[in-house]
Amino acid sequence: MKGFLNSKPFNLITGTIQGNIINASWKNFCNNSTGSLKLHIDRNRLVKVGGNPGFNTSWTPTQKPASIGSRPDCNDARNLNGTWRGNNGGTYVVRQTGSIVSWNGRGGNFKNIFIGQRQGNTVSGLWQDTASSQTQNSGRLTFKVVNGSRLVRVSHTGSLGNSNWTR
Q1: Can you tell me the mean pLDDT for 151-159?
Q2: How far is CA 31 from CA 85, 146, 147, 149, 153, in A?
Q3: How far apart are CA 158 and CA 140, in angstroms?
């Protein structure tokens, strides 16, 4: 079984069927993470009953994407829209429209905003802690997009606490 993201394969699940149970292993094409999976076949769906994936708990049939043979471009320009968590605290709502990336973040005593431009997997722009009146709580930020699921700070100015963010 292949899992797809943006019509490109993302996860590969292989296993054996014994009665109504599938015992399988999975591998992520982009970050090479692996794990086990145990599924129960329940009428027209598969239900997770064991294993260590951090993704879906059930699956239902759907139309297959146009190309099931292509490998994903793991460093593509996937949209960053969604909620991200900083490694030093806070939750960030990220919006990407074309190459423009912005976010609002909150946590503890701060309220950050960011606006920047994306070129490939690099995003550069300006950030500011709008809850603070101190000028060191603003500056420039450049980060890399890693596998569409992690943002890693490359450089910054100001007193920015987080060095990476995850979905």
Answers
A1: 89
A2: 19, 9, 7, 10, 19
A3: 7
Q: Which two tokens stand for residue 109?
A: 């005593």
The tens digit of pLDDT for each residue in 99-139 reads 899 999 887 777 889 999 988 788 999 999 888 666 568 89
Best CA proximity match to 11, nearest among 79, 47, 59: 59
CA angle 11, 14, 19 (to 5 degrees): 130
Distance between the two ends of the chain, CA-based, in angstroms?
24
Residue 19 in this model has a pLDDT that exceeds 50: yes
Token pair for 111? 């309220």
Kindly state the tokens that stand for 154: 């490359």
